[in-house]
Amino acid sequence: MAFFLDSNIVLYSLGDDQSKKEVSLALLAEKPHISTQVINECSHVLRRRLHWQTDQIVEVLSFILDLVILEDMTLEHIRQAWKIASRYGFSHYDSLIIASALASDCDVL
């Protein structure tokens, strides 16, 4: 079964909450799909909210990229996200995640 991780799951793997960390690390060990948007969101949170240095972010997220299948964002994802947002009322960014998960043929988000 293919599954797609949202940014918060990746961030939980780096956090202090031990129960969330264990679950997220177990999910990362299963070679999940993520999108370039997830990496960008994680970079933003680590830099702006958690005040990590750029070299720390590069090191950790490079390691995570080795654990996952990366889905590049495309214009088609953006167009699909607009349709998802219009139909279901999700935010644009959540709709991009959903569109990427659908494009990856993932069964679980």
Keywords:
109 residues; mainly alpha; Rossmann fold; 63% helix
Describe this protein's structure.
The structure is a single chain. This protein is mainly alpha-helical and 109 residues long. It has a single domain (7-103), classed as Rossmann fold, CATH 3.40.50.1010. Helix content is 63%, strand content 6%. It contains 6 helices and 2 strands. A two-stranded parallel sheet has the order 1-2. The chain is globular, with a radius of gyration of 14 Å. The chain starts with 6 loop residues before the first helix and ends in a 6-residue tail after the last helix. The mean pLDDT is 96.
Please give the structural blueprint.
Blueprint: H1 7-12, H2 18-28, E1 33-35, H3 36-49, H4 54-65, E2 69-71, H5 75-88, H6 92-103
Parallel strand pairs: 1-2
Helix pairs in contact: 3-4, 5-6
Query: What is the topology, as strand order, of the major beta sheet?
Result: 1-2
Approximate helicity band: 55-70%
CATH class category name: Alpha Beta
Overall, the morphology is: globular
Number of helices: 6
**What is the terminal-to-terminal distance?**
11 Å
The CATH superfamily is identified as 5'-nuclease
Overall number of strands: 2
Gyration radius from CA atoms, angstroms: 14 Å
The number of domains: 1
- CATH architecture descriptor name: 3-Layer(aba) Sandwich
Report the sheet-strand fraction: 5-15%
Can you tell me the residue ranges where pLDDT is under 50 for at least 5 consecutive residues?
none
* CATH topology annotation: Rossmann fold
